[in-house]
Amino acid sequence: MKSSLVAISAAAVVATLVTGLKDRAAMQERFGIPAVKPAPDLMMMGRIKPTDAPAGNADFNAEAVADKIEAITSPQPPARDTPEPNVAKEPPAAPQAEGSQAAGQPAPVPPAIVTEPPARQQAAAPPQPDVDESALRYFASRGDKVRLQAEISRLQALYPNWVPPADPLAVPQNGDKQLEAMWKLYSDGRYAELRKAIADRQAADAGWQPPTDLLDRLDVAEARARLINASDLKQYATVVDIGAATPSLLTCSEVDVLWRVAEAFVRTERSQRGQDAYAYILKNCGDPAERRATVEKASTLLDYQPMQALLALEKSAADGGKEFDAIRDNLARRFVAESNENPRLAIAPSYIARLEKLAESEGLASDALLLGWYQLRRNNPADAEKWFRAARAKENTAVASQGLALALIARRAPQEAEDVMFRWRADSDDATSTYLAATANLMALQPPADLAEDVLHRIAAEVIARKYVPTAQQFGWYARSLNQFQTAARWFETALAWKPDDEPSAYGLAVTREQLNDRKGVLDLQRAWAGRSARIAKLEDTLVSNAGAQPATPPLAPQQPVQPAEPPLPPAASTQPEPEVSVRVTRPAMQTVAVERGPRRARGCATTIDAGQLGPSEALSRGWCLMEINRPMEAIPAFETALQSPVRKIREDAAYGQSLAYLRAGLSNNAAVAATKAPQSRQRAAELQVAILADRALQAFDAGRYRETLIYLDQRAQLQQERIDLMVLRGYSYLNLKMYDDAGRIFEAAAATGNRDATRGLADLRKVTHPDVND
């Protein structure tokens, strides 16, 4: 049994050498390596095809050879002057076709391709050529079975007519002790010492020439060493040059060299060449471990698409699976990470599904984070939130909290985002930016969020410490919504002190000073922003008072005004606003603001029932039915029931329907809140935003807040072209603000379409500007 195993091993080594030697030309053509000067005979082995292997000697039996070597060499200790080399630990032998590896690493052994020829060829065996058998003698004398068989295979490839000796013991021992010592140096990888030994002997004996075989082996071994050293030093251009000059290194027996050359191609911006090198290994080399390692190494250097081409070369495993199944989990992780860096990269859904299973089964926070960022970068905040929460439950880190906060901001839940990120706000620049973004979104909520005093103070402290203008500006608008005009003015002033060219803050300060009857302050702003902001320049010196008008969004709970601890600028001097008479014109008849939907049939919604007793799907149908018969207040609880559905589509329709119901009831703030209860498509979100802004403009006009009316109309105009009825509303807002030129321009444009309200607006304008003229 032992003899059989040894024979099989010997035959495998033969196959390795023949397979490796046949591929030099293919590698040169594949990698685009320039042609080099004609190689010595040892290098030319790469042209030999597997079918060109010599028939060999029918009397030669590899099993018998191995048995005899073991029988002779195993019991006897090696001579003291030439200790037997330890094959498992010795330095690399020749890198070329004899198949020896770096020190202590035997060559990979694909299936044997040298078969025993038919007996009939024995009689036709050609005469023996003159062959340098010095290496054969050395390996035989040392009892090195693997290298002996490799040397026999090499000589057969070089000299097809050469017949190996039937008995290795019959091979004459080297009589040249110096040459034997040189082979020992080569075998031990001591190449510099070998060079010196050759030079010393040539100096002492001018007629002596070293064997060509030894020199060729030494050249290749040194080339391998230089290539590996250059690769370790990241001198990739040198790696490619050495590979081009030594094509015998580019074989399956030198797979580490192939890996290094492939990496060098990629690092020198020749990714296609690198991909070709990896593909060459997968197409020609059979060692399973090396094939898996090839894919793993390639995945760290190549992009997603080239990797799919390499994975297409995968073979079926003996158990019916695929040979790369063991590394597919890590490949999925790597591909998802790559897609996170490039959101435009579309990877196969199978990788996402595989990673989701891994995240659920193994529970690694890192897997959940990969999925969270993947969904967030593809505008799926609900799915991203799920995975970030899972990651945060495993490991509450700054990265997990940051991802969760961004997902919450995306789905309009900045209050929780601020709370999540407060602990990590100073962890990194990204964490700080995320926290401040959450604060700005939180302060900009409509209707204003009901914030505890300690939350307001901690946000204010961070904003002042970071001098963050967006949140300071939003603090100003937030204070205005609570009728805290002095506080609002100080926040706008603070924002301008940090960023003097921030026009929105300057406009907010101008509007607030107007409401505080600070005429000098308004004029100062108008002069400072002359030619830079049309809306600031059009603010009139005569202040308009809207005594009795209700605030846009009353506070949800009584709270103290929010003041910066140390405002950069003192609050502007002001007095309490004094009522003045303003032009109040009857509001024109307006169309109802709503979003059109397709017709729906009423399904038994004429009777009153408790929507909470219905299933989500039935409640959704009842909600639409109630909307069709104009009973929006009853439709609202029906849509609320449908929002509890686990089906995403039902939740989206329910949130959309509830928003429409609130709009029809004239509750635009509630409509805005309802729209955030489930993600909406881009078209629906735009429709709702347009409708909500129009409704808010109408409410602001009814309350006499004409500047707010213009703000809402401006915001709506950025999303959709202004309707004629809203143009009339804009005209009356200008008229009430005594901006007569603007009012006349708007009324004339609307009246040109035949609109009666616009014509009436022109008449109202004439009454105000020319009261002594009889129509």
What would CATH call the class of the domain at 680-774?
Mainly Alpha
CATH topology of the domain at 680-774: Serine Threonine Protein Phosphatase 5, Tetratricopeptide repeat
Distance from N terminus to C terminus (CA atoms, Å) equals 123 Å
CATH homologous superfamily descriptor of the domain at 680-774: Tetratricopeptide repeat domain
- Secondary structure category: mainly alpha
Gyration radius, in Å: 43 Å
Q: How many E strands?
A: 0
| Low-pLDDT windows of residues | 1-28, 34-60, 72-123, 541-603
Q: Write down the overall geometry.
A: elongated
Beta content: under 5%
DSSP helical segment count: 35
Task: State the major sheet.
Answer: none
**What helical percentage do the residues reach?**
55-70%
**Arithmetic mean pLDDT:** 74
CATH architecture of the domain at 680-774: Alpha Horseshoe
